[in-house]
Amino acid sequence: MQVSSLNEVKIYSLSAGRSLPEWLSDRKKRALQKKDVDIRRRIELIQDFEMPTVSTKIKVSRDGQYIMAVGTYKPRVRCFDTYQLSQKFERCLDSEVVTFEILSDDYSKIVFLQCGRFVEFHSQHGHYYKTRIPKFGRDFSYHYPSCDLYFVGASSEVYRLNLEQGRFLNSLQTDASESNVCDINPVHFLFAMGTAEGKVECWDPRTRNRVGLLDCALSSVTADTEIEGLPSISALKFDGALNMAVGTSTGQVLLYDLRSSNPLIVKDHHYGLPIKSIQFHHQLDLILSADSRIIKMWNKDTGKIFTSMEPEHDINDVCLYPNSGMLMTANEAPKMNIYYIPVLGPAPKWCSFLDNLTEELEENPESTVYDDYKFVTRKDLENLGLAHLIGSSLLRAYMHGFFMDIRLYHKAKMMANPFAYEEYRREKIRQKIEETRAQRVQLKKLPKVNKELALKLIEEEGEEQQTSRKRKQKNLPSLLKDDRFKVMFENPDFQVDEQSEEFRLLNPLVSKISEKRKRKLKMLEELEAQGQEEEEEPEGKASDAESSESSDDEKGWVEEVRKQRKLLRQEEKLKRQERFKEDQQTSLKPQFFEIKEGEEFRSFKDSAKKQKLMKKTLEDRLKLEEKLGTLNVSDTTVGSKQATFKLKKSEQQRKQQEAEKWHRQERKTLRRSAAHLKSSRGRGRRFH
């Protein structure tokens, strides 16, 4: 079962997974199910729910018990019984089916419109009667009050076949050259047909006169839509007495109120493909429209997208199971898809177990596992020596890392660490030896990781045992013997860092309490080094000093917290001083930035201002330039406007001009001083 989510709407694909060939024997099928995990875990809701090559149409009987589908090749119809979750019958036909209609509540009366102008009737036992219409048909509808079949197709006429009299009646003459689809309103039985010219003609079956005409091709063209050619009507569906949805060949869906000639809303699929099917979901006020690529569910009042589905193969038809959240599609593939969307409604009564299954999946969500890919972080790539592959097609960026081919990962790991298997083998052997040693009589030994924490737990366990003996209560299990916390005393990654800021602030009395444990720990290590047996700690003999140390006096706790904070501030100050010394010792090197060809260098300081300026409209920018004096707008005699711009000087040019100006002033002062000195010397000579 595949699960997808869009707009927080979960969609469960019940037909995902591989299907087994029909010609395989039961023995081989059982053998494959044992070997292949995917086949064993798949959900086959209805057995053999598929066609040999392609399925074209799919419908559900009014009682909800039977699902009927037509397809090729050879042309055939298959009926599936939902109560038995299997196929009930299969009938082959002479030519391909364009569309079909179930006239009864079950499968006992069916009408098929075939591509060879044939109309074939089937009863419960099989083929009943076959007739022919004058022109090729494309769609038909059944009028229940008069028992008439209305056929539309490659003709301007609408052919009427009365099933009570068993003969053709007078045709309806329309203004259209060809008609594609038709439908009859289930409330007041208004007959509507969609033409190739993009119009919808509405007829009254009682008087056989046209009562309305809608130009949908003109209404489907809006300012945002881009179309090629004249849109024709490709889908038509009534909703209640007043609403009607129309689908065009260019991918637009128009929702009409029959009292108005303008559409209430126009929804574009943006694929340019003909709309194949339109369904209504009344509980959530949704419209389900589908082309050959996508199924979109959107609100009929606002047009906001509810969710969408994109199957792997092209869609031919969509069927919504009544009063449920199940959706079935006929595709350009042998397998017909079944989707379950819990938000739309509950599962049908014949597969009510789907509700329990989806609830369990929502309670225990599983992350997606890619069997052929390995997720690695940037640090892992650097350790493997593959950091140069970032940006290439071999790595696919995802969240805080990358996906890479599992084969490439194994090769790189073998080259980076060729002795990894040997280390893994030694570790496994060591674990096996330790497991066998655990069965022997052992000394009381502390673990390698978190020794102080283990000693604390042993002391607390001893105190609890003493109190439980006095109160005659059962002893609680020890954390050291619990398998769930075993890794905490084996893996060095779980080592408690007592020098961290969090530990020292959250445990202000740990320095006092840990002194006693450190002394005991040192004594135990000396005993282990000498090979002596470890004696158990005496219980219930705590001195007054120990009791005072372990007391929870509020004043002592506050003083200890203040002391720890003061120490942390001093350490932080020392670190800052060290960083400042390092910064003074390090020599700054110039950084060079490469400018792409065809781009201008822009100042780093003015980049934010220029980005804000570029977001403004042209009018605002012109007003700003006019205020700064770089733009002058004046009216001409002809009546037009003349704009004069002054080029802005860059920062570099401004600095260069200031430097030149300063140099000029300096040269003037030098000349004046030289002239003054020369004149003073001449005067002195004349005086002598």
Automatic annotation (TrEMBL):
<dbReference type="Pfam" id="PF23098">
    <property type="entry name" value="Beta-prop_NOL10_N"/>
</dbReference>
<feature type="region of interest" description="Disordered">
    <location>
        <begin position="528"/>
        <end position="557"/>
    </location>
</feature>
<dbReference type="Pfam" id="PF08159">
    <property type="entry name" value="NUC153"/>
</dbReference>
<dbReference type="InterPro" id="IPR012580">
    <property type="entry name" value="NUC153"/>
</dbReference>
<dbReference type="InterPro" id="IPR040382">
    <property type="entry name" value="NOL10/Enp2"/>
</dbReference>
<keyword id="KW-0677">Repeat</keyword>
<dbReference type="GO" id="GO:0030686">
    <property type="term" value="C:90S preribosome"/>
</dbReference>
<dbReference type="Pfam" id="PF23097">
    <property type="entry name" value="NOL10_2nd"/>
</dbReference>
<feature type="domain" description="Nucleolar protein 10-like second">
    <location>
        <begin position="369"/>
        <end position="417"/>
    </location>
</feature>
<comment type="similarity">
    <text>Belongs to the WD repeat NOL10/ENP2 family.</text>
</comment>
<dbReference type="InterPro" id="IPR056550">
    <property type="entry name" value="NOL10_2nd"/>
</dbReference>
<dbReference type="InterPro" id="IPR015943">
    <property type="entry name" value="WD40/YVTN_repeat-like_dom_sf"/>
</dbReference>
<dbReference type="InterPro" id="IPR056551">
    <property type="entry name" value="Beta-prop_NOL10_N"/>
</dbReference>
<protein>
    <recommendedName>
        <fullName>Nucleolar protein 10</fullName>
    </recommendedName>
</protein>
<dbReference type="GO" id="GO:0000462">
    <property type="term" value="P:maturation of SSU-rRNA from tricistronic rRNA transcript (SSU-rRNA, 5.8S rRNA, LSU-rRNA)"/>
</dbReference>
<feature type="compositionally biased region" description="Basic and acidic residues">
    <location>
        <begin position="648"/>
        <end position="663"/>
    </location>
</feature>
<feature type="region of interest" description="Disordered">
    <location>
        <begin position="638"/>
        <end position="688"/>
    </location>
</feature>
<dbReference type="GO" id="GO:0032040">
    <property type="term" value="C:small-subunit processome"/>
</dbReference>
<feature type="domain" description="Nucleolar protein 10-like N-terminal">
    <location>
        <begin position="1"/>
        <end position="364"/>
    </location>
</feature>
<feature type="domain" description="NUC153">
    <location>
        <begin position="482"/>
        <end position="508"/>
    </location>
</feature>
<dbReference type="InterPro" id="IPR001680">
    <property type="entry name" value="WD40_rpt"/>
</dbReference>
<feature type="compositionally biased region" description="Basic residues">
    <location>
        <begin position="664"/>
        <end position="688"/>
    </location>
</feature>
<keyword id="KW-0853">WD repeat</keyword>
<feature type="compositionally biased region" description="Acidic residues">
    <location>
        <begin position="528"/>
        <end position="538"/>
    </location>
</feature>
<keyword id="KW-0539">Nucleus</keyword>
<keyword id="KW-0175">Coiled coil</keyword>
<dbReference type="InterPro" id="IPR036322">
    <property type="entry name" value="WD40_repeat_dom_sf"/>
</dbReference>
